[in-house]
């Protein structure tokens, strides 16, 4: 009986672990309809749970809490609120500070809602300013970007001093009044060695991009954040994205290489043939330091559509380019793809939207520029392991995700305990009715030798 007991318990715990892992990394099998198929409850959209050290932003620059390089922080921000964070910069390293807001799934958001970032010097000079707005009604999704201080580009903000990140939330009066979680990160890029020269990227021509069609499609399971993004490389990758969901993927692009991505949103089961959802699907690209590179969106109501992005070849010298999407392709590393399906797509189709990512990274990798220090802490650089490890799997979540796993495991353990106690009680009652001791070994069944237990 002991072996049976442990076998049942092990099976229950294994099932709980599998379910918990799927919940933690967002890789649970997608539902086949509004009810998830087979009478199962609908699968909720995967949601980014901001992680990192708590860092309450200040209301003034004087009280701005200090951020450290290569560290992730989390905070919250209310409608109309402005928060400040302090950054001490030297006179040699380029700096990148990102902030992403993650409104709750289904939140009411307006076209102009979002966050606005500024990086300012101690004397009030604006080193850089960027904004991220939804630019659509009701499309609550993760939004953000990074602001930069580039050494050797421009004449302001080049000194060693105290700098400040300002994050302001814009909000329409009819939008959701709740606070948004924030995830913030600051990274530093070391300078080049004295006398070192960076090699410009090779030219790949100006022909319009064409999608990759050769090769066997592979399965991918997009993550719910930058930290859990699924690693993909050159190839064809299939996934499914629910309405109201944003999935993250990352592509290793080395020095001198050029990446082209097509996101094909396939047909889905249409429930309202008259529906029209502008900006129904979206593809956005972010750099290794979480800076917005480029993106596009298209209408979607169940019929196929495709969005493509052809990025500039990666080169250190791109930082001096006048064209923003080119200037942001200034380092090798993981480039992130954010794929979003508008929540209102659920009014037009049933279940998730099939997505095919056609990723094509061209060109031989060039030698890295001669950095005076290790740029890997900023996420800069690609090695052979990065490419070989890109198998479409999302990185398991931490913090709240592991809590889900523990909860499911404990719940399953509790259910298993109840089941085993009930079996034990039934077994003891059966022994008594048969006139045998409760712990007697049952006789052979005739289908082989007696069990050894």
Walk me through what this model shows.
The protein has 453 residues and is of the alpha+beta class. It folds into 3 domains: 1-26 and 397-453, no CATH class; 57-189, Jelly Rolls (Sandwich); 204-393, Jelly Rolls. It is 15% helix and 30% strand. The chain has 4 helices and 21 strands. It has helices at residues 2-25, 324-327, 384-388, 400-433; strands at 53-54, 71-77, 82-89, 94-101, 114-120, 126-133, 143-149, 161-170, 180-189, 218-219, 230-231, 235-241, 245-253, 258-265, 269-270, 281-286, 292-298, 305-310, 333-341, 349-350, 353-362. It has a 5-stranded mixed β-sheet, with no helix packed on it. The protein has a 5-stranded mixed β-sheet with strand order 10-12-21-14-18, with no helix packed on it. β16 (281-286) and β17 form a beta hairpin. α1 (2-25) runs antiparallel to α4 (400-433). The relative contact order is 0.17.
Distance between the first and last residues' Cα: 7 Å
By CATH reckoning, the class of the largest domain would read Mainly Beta
Global shape:
globular
The chain-level structural class is alpha+beta
Please give the CATH architecture of the largest domain: Sandwich
> What's the overall average pLDDT, rounded?
83
Report the C-alpha radius of gyration, rounded: 26 Å
Number of strands: 21
How many helical stretches?
Answer: 4
Count of all domains: 3
Percent of residues in β-strands = 25-35%
**H-E string:** HEEEEEEEEEEEEEEEEEEHEEEHH
State the share of residues found in helices, binned by percent: 10-25%
């Amino acid at each position: 009986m002991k072996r049976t007991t442990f076998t049942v318990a092990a099976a229950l715990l294994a099932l709980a672990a599998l379910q918990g892992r799927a919940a933690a990394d967002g890789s649970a099998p997608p539902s086949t309809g509004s009810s998830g198929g087979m009478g199962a409850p609908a699968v909720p959209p995967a949601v980014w749970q901001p992680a990192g050290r708590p860092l309450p932003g200040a209301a003034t620059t004087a009280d701005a809490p200090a951020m450290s390089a290569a560290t992730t922080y989390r905070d919250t921000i209310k409608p109309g609120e402005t928060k400040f964070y302090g950054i001490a910069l030297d006179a040699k390293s380029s700096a990148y500070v990102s902030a992403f807001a993650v409104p709750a799934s289904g939140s009411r958001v307006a076209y102009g809602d979002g966050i606005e970032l500024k990086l300012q010097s101690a004397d009030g000079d604006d080193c850089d300013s960027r904004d991220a707005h939804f630019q659509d009604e009701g499309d609550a999704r993760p939004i953000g970007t990074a602001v930069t201080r580039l050494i050797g580009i421009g004449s302001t903000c080049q000194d060693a001093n105290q700098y400040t990140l300002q994050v302001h939330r814009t909000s329409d009066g009819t939008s959701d009044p709740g606070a948004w979680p924030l995830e913030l990160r600051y990274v530093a890029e070391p300078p080049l060695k004295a006398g070192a020269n960076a090699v410009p990227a090779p030219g790949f021509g100006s022909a319009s991009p064409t999608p990759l069609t050769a090769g066997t499609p592979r399965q991918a399971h997009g993550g719910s954040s930058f930290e859990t993004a699924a690693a993909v490389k050159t190839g064809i990758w299939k996934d499914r994205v629910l309405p109201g969901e944003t999935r993250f993927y990352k592509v290793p692009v080395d020095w001198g290489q050029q990446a082209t991505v097509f996101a094909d949103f396939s047909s889905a089961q249409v429930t309202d043939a008259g529906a029209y959802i502008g900006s129904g699907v979206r593809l956005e690209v972010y750099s290794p330091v979480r800076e917005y590179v480029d993106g596009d969106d298209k209408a979607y109501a169940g019929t196929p559509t495709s969005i493509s992005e052809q990025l500039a070849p990666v080169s250190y010298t791109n930082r001096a380019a006048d064209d923003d999407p080119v200037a942001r392709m200034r380092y090798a590393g993981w480039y992130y793809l954010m794929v979003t399906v508008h929540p209102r797509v659920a009014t037009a189709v049933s279940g998730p939207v099939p997505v095919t990512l056609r990723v094509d990274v061209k060109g031989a990798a060039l030698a890295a520029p001669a950095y005076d220090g290790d740029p890997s802490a900023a996420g800069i650089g690609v090695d052979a392991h990065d490419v070989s490890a890109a198998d479409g799997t999302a990185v398991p979540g931490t913090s709240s995700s592991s809590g889900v796993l523990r909860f499911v495991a404990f719940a399953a353990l509790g259910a298993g305990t109840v089941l085993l106690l009930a079996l034990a009680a039934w077994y003891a009652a059966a022994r008594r009715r048969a006139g045998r001791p409760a712990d007697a070994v049952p006789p052979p069944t005739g289908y082989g030798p007696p069990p050894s237990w």
